[in-house]
Amino acid sequence: MFGSAQAPDEESAPLSRPLILLKRISIAAILLLAVVYAGDYISVRYRIPKNRDPYGVVRIRRSYAVTMKNGKPEYFFDQPTEQTCVRSLFPHFGYPPCWYLERRRTQQVKM
What we know:
By secondary structure, the protein is α+β, with helices and mostly antiparallel strands. Helices cover 36% and strands 26% of the residues. It has helices at 12-45, 98-103; strands at 55-67, 73-77, 81-86, 106-110. The protein is flat and about 65 Å long. The N and C termini lie far apart (74 Å).
């Protein structure tokens, strides 16, 4: 009755332990990512710290690669433009993070 608990099968017990551990690690990683994203959003939304502007501007240069009839690409360059970005780890409010844009100042569009 109360004291009689069924012992798990000997074959399924060793296999289920790594699965349980993998499940716990996955849940912990998802929760950690959600907490980091929420903290990043709160810092941008409520301007934490107060002396930091959450938005920045990065000058980018866009080029267009047009494939001609002979199969060779021809490049057209656009004037440099300024693009608004957000100073955070993740994109927020429709703007990419500044660290991402600063590493990709030249953007190529294939046509």
